[in-house]
TrEMBL record:
It comes from the Eukaryota. Keywords: Endoplasmic reticulum, Heme, Iron, Membrane, Metal-binding, Microsome, Monooxygenase, Oxidoreductase, Transmembrane, Transmembrane helix. It comes from Cavia porcellus (Guinea pig). Its cofactor is heme. GO terms for cellular component: endoplasmic reticulum membrane. The chain crosses the membrane at residues 12-32. GO terms for biological process: arachidonate metabolic process; icosanoid biosynthetic process; kidney development; lauric acid metabolic process; linoleic acid metabolic process. This is Uncharacterized protein. Pfam families: p450 (PF00067). Its main location: endoplasmic reticulum. Belongs to the cytochrome P450 family.
Amino acid sequence: MSISALSPTRFLGGISGLLQVAFLLSLLLLLFKAAQFYLHRQWLFKALQQFPCPPSHWLFGHKYQFQEDQELQQVLKWAKEFPSACPRWLWGSRLTILLYDPDYIKVILGRSDPKAHGTYRLISPWIGYGLLLLNGPTWFQHRRMLTPAFHYDILKPYVAVMADSVQGMLDKWEQLISEDTPLEIFQHVSLMTLDSLMKCAFNDQSCAQFNRKPHPYIQAVGDLNYLTFSRIRNVFHQNDTIYSLSSNGRLFKQACKIAHEHTDQVIKQRKSQLQDERELEKIKRKRRLDFLDILLFARMEDGSSLSNKDLRAEVDTFMFEGHDTTASGISWILYALAAHPKHQQKCREEVQSLLGNEASITWEHLDQMPYTTMCIKEALRLYPPVPSVSRELSEPVTFPDGRSLPKGITVSLAIYALHHNPKVWPNPEVYDPSRFALDSTRHSHSFLPFSGGSRNCIGKQFAMNELKVAVALTLLRFELLPDPSRIPLPVSRIVMKSKNGIHLHLRKLP
């Protein structure tokens, strides 16, 4: 009996039966998922019937209409064809509604919808859940805690620090330039804004831009920008496990490690400095604390200090946003002025009349450059540092024209398309600083280089100050000319970049 019970025939028959059951269960699960997918798509079609869009593939969505690095140009075509908003199918039942009408965007920014989880969670391994990714009461608590770091009493002395970093970059440019060879400026500007940020917000006096070797943090941020954006657009990389096994996933992990090592070193160094009684005395005498000191001395409502995880998330967030977006802004502004020499010269004359030959710029000077400010804003309109931001609707929404969207839909505030929308900005591709003259009128939500509403960029004044300082001091030292053989090609990333760099000819002024 026992031998019969263990016979190979019966054993194999048992396995065959288990395989049949497993196959049947797998088939039922597949049918269930297919039905779920079909029903969800039908619900989406019904919810979006008021919002026409180009035909899409049932699985790959509009993938084939968006060639690599042509995303911005494609969205502009849609903005002209489909008023106010247009659905973009990413794949399967995954989509986002592109909004590029100021009335639509005003409605969304006036609400408290959370950041779109499906998109922003992919950034979290890099910058953690700091002010950019947090939602709800925790976001509000952190925002309230960090707002004093951007008070004008804190920002005033930063102007001299920014000017010192800019002058260092310009000194380096003087040594590098030649009449025949253009200079790729983005990397230099990135190092300068990192130096400036480290000194202003993190009490770190190391000078990254004078190291001969490429700065690993700058390289890591560039890689993370590209890898994160690529992952957002890749259906096969949404799963964390699958992504971690891919070549891009391994590169992403390594770049995160480099970025985190940099921020950990910044935190460790400042904690070490605060062990010194003299440094603590200096802190006590301050009316207001710098960014990192606020984080280190912060107390939550329950009396606890920030956890190491929360502390690093806020430092990672501001380290990235405080240098990369500003570097993008400065680089594109300098290119815009190089491409429009009449406006460049008018800005230079304004700065020269204000600063003379001393090239010493102060807080008070920043509000005395109206034409330069107009030119800066017009460049930010054409090349917004952050091309889009996303929200997930926590409640249904009805727009001013009566069209509506249900809860759960992801909307993308397409800032680049808004800034280039011909219904909002006549002749939008023309560089025209007069759009920002003091007596000009425009929609309150037609210009959003720093987003808007309660979740606008907390560091926007810090950034604008640095843009003005960098532009003013650069124009005093150099005439800027474009390289006609390498016109920059704007590409959509988390932060606006140029596919082929930003190359300028620099001529030292007498």
